[in-house]
Design brief:
This protein has 2 domains: 90 residues, no CATH class; 44 residues, no CATH class. It has 148 residues and is mainly α. The N and C termini lie close together (11 Å).
C-alpha cells in the first residue's frame, strides 16, 4: 500500500456531536499533518472544511495546529472543539450546517468530470449532490492508487 492515503470517510458521516463532514475533516487534516494525505486532497480546503469550521465558530489555523501537535483520536478532537471559547454547538446551528452540506450541489464541470472518470453518463441517473459525487471521486482515486 502507498505511503499516502485517499480519505475514505464520507462527508455524509457525523460523529457524536452530529456534525456532518467533521470526521472527514479530522481524517484529512490528520493525514496531512503526517505527510500521508494523497495528492490532490487538501488537509483543510475551502469547501466543506471551511463550511464546518466557520459554522462552528472555529479557527482553521487553530484546528490545524491542534491536530498537528496533539495527534488526537476523533473523540479527542471533538472534546477539543467543545472546549473552544465561543464554539457554536447548538442543535439548531448543527442542523442548519448539516442541511447546507447535504444540499450542496457541485458545478456542472465538477459533476461531469467525476462522472466521466467513473465511466458514468451525465444523464441524471446519479444523485447530483456533492456528498455522493465526492464519494464516487474518492472511490475512484482509491481504486487507482491501491487496487489497480
Amino acid at each position: 500500500m502507498s505511503d499516502t492515503y485517499v480519505p475514505l470517510i464520507s462527508s455524509g458521516v457525523a460523529g457524536p456531536l452530529g456534525v456532518l463532514h467533521l470526521p472527514r475533516l479530522w481524517q484529512k487534516a490528520s493525514l496531512e499533518a503526517r505527510g500521508k494525505l494523497a495528492a490532490g486532497y487538501p488537509g483543510i480546503g475551502q469547501g466543506y472544511d471551511m463550511m464546518v469550521i466557520n459554522a462552528l465558530g472555529l479557527n482553521a489555523d487553530a484546528v490545524r495546529a491542534f491536530i498537528t501537535e496533539s495527534k488526537p483520536t476523533y473523540p479527542q478532537f471533538e472534546a477539543w472543539i467543545k472546549a473552544q471559547p465561543g464554539v457554536k454547538l447548538a442543535k439548531a446551528n448543527i442542523h442548519k450546517l448539516n442541511v447546507s452540506i447535504a444540499g450542496y450541489i457541485h458545478n456542472d464541470e465538477t459533476r461531469k468530470g467525476i462522472l466521466a472518470a467513473n465511466g458514468l453518463n451525465d444523464d441524471g441517473s446519479v444523485l447530483p449532490d456533492a456528498i455522493n459525487l465526492n464519494n464516487l471521486d474518492d472511490w475512484f482515486e482509491f481504486h487507482q492508487a491501491v487496487l489497480k
